[in-house]
Amino acid sequence: MRTFFDSSGLAKRYIREPGSDKVDRLLAAATDTAVSLVGPVEIISALGRLRRESRLTANAYAQIKLALFLDVEDMIVCNITVPVVERAIVLLETHPVRTLDALHVAGALEWEAELFVSADRRQLAAAEKSGLRIQAV
User: Fold this and answer.
1) Which CATH superfamily is domain 2-38+75-136 in?
2) Which pTM was predicted?
């Protein structure tokens, strides 16, 4: 199954929390996996916050960052193209989503994902109303 992960969903692969086991199963079952170009940046931002809050050691940060980038090498990275931006604008005009959340959904639509994975309820609602099959994690 062509599965698109937004950053809140994919982050659960690296930061163990409720939903992490589900993410592992979805990744294992996916035939193709995609992320937005901004996904890894958002995950690094979250990891940096955890590091600054001393909830993650420097060593753990480095290991997780390496694991993230090794995984992304095997994924399809959806660029932010003009069609993606156009779709994101429509999403922003019709759903209460944030800018980057709209870009993730728009990227998934443009890539023709069969499943959209996220931990963000508003984003999932917008994705579903836009025709994507969704999975909350």
Assistant:
1) 5'-nuclease (3.40.50.1010)
2) 0.96
